[in-house]
Write a structure and sequence with these properties.
Blueprint: H1 5-17, E1 21-24, E2 27-30, H2 34-50
Antiparallel strand pairs: 1-2
Helix pairs in contact: 1-2
Organism: Caldimonas brevitalea
Protein name: GpW protein
Length: 69
């Protein structure tokens, strides 16, 4: 199955909320436990990387300014 970044987002959101049931379009999957859900997330990340769609976390930029002394 070719996964999409949206599939990864759904899985990660379910993990963050403590849910075990995730819907992908017209299909719903219920994972037995957190380990199985985390395994699915790793699988989707590997598949996206193989497709050349590397998922990177958002970049954070911190800017500090001062008026001087």
């Amino acid at each position: 199955m070719a996964y999409t970044p949206e599939d990864l987002q759904r899985l990660q959101a379910a993990l963050a909320k403590g849910e075990r049931r995730v819907s992908f379009g017209d299909k719903t999957v219920e994972y037995r436990d957190v380990d199985e859900l985390q395994s699915a997330i790793r699988e989707v990340k590997r598949d996206l990387a193989a497709q050349g769609r590397v998922v990177r976390p958002p970049r954070q930029i911190r800017i500090t300014t001062s008026k001087g002394t």
